[in-house]
Amino acid sequence: MIGAALQEAALDPLLTGRDHMRLQTLLQGLPRSLRRQRTEELLGRMGLLEAADRKVAGYSGGMKRRLDLGLALVHSPQVL
Fold first, then answer.
1. Of the residues 46, 59, 71, 75, which has the fewest C-beta atoms closer than 10 A?
2. Residue pLDDT, tens place only, 66-79
3. What one-character DSSP code corresponds to residue 15?
4. Rounded to whole angstroms, how far apart are CA atoms 38 and 22?
């Protein structure tokens, strides 16, 4: 019901943005049939499709914030 994007994003610098999204969809229990669709939808909304397959270590601070926000929205929370 609640999504959280904290002040400091807890992102693994060795994973890509797409890896983070896939992992979060799995952890939030999204049905397998929706995981890829939700990943692509949120990467697009956050303006990260072009950088989705790059490691997060190469992301700017703003890109990391947008990725973290997208991760908080994966499960369509009622409150963010």
1. 75
2. 999 999 999 999 99
3. S
4. 9
**Nearest-angstrom CA–CA distance, 73 and 51:** 19
The encoded tokens of residue 64 equal 């990391």
DSSP conformation class of 60: -
Q: Write the CB contacts of 59 (distance below 8 Å, at least 6 apart in sequence).
A: 17, 51, 67
- Do the Cβ atoms of 75 and 31 come closer than 8 Å? no
Q: What is the pLDDT of residues 2-20, one digit of tens each?
A: 898 888 888 999 999 999 9
- The values of phi and psi at residue 55, to 5°, are -65, 145
Copy the structure tokens of residue 20.
């983070």
The identity of residue 50, as a single letter, is E
In terms of Cα–Cα distance, which of 69, 55, 65 is closest to 17?
Answer: 55
Q: Is 17 helix (H, G, I), strand (E, B) or coil?
A: helix
Q: Quote the pTM value.
A: 0.91
